[in-house]
User: What shape does this take?
Amino acid sequence: MSEEKNKEKELTKKEEETLHVYFVEKVVTLMTGAMGLVAALAWNDAIRKLFERVFGTQGSGDITAMFIYAAIVTAAVVVVTYRLARIVEKMKKKEKR
Assistant: This one.
């Protein structure tokens, strides 16, 4: 009888680990999407400023600074996304053991 209880506890522990990995994967997906949106908005601003300069539309702000900002945000998103994906990958490997 005690062996059955131990098996139930082990199964529950595995289920908890699976749920934890699933939760982390979903959080990473949401964070990645949010950071992608920030990068897209940065590029949107930079390109908008470019068009304002090329076509003479009134607008303030330095176009070079906007492009540098967009590039930095994009690079940061790539680095963070890569690291988060590695964390999830390690958790999946740990779960399989």
User: Anything to note?
Assistant: Residues 2-96 form one domain.
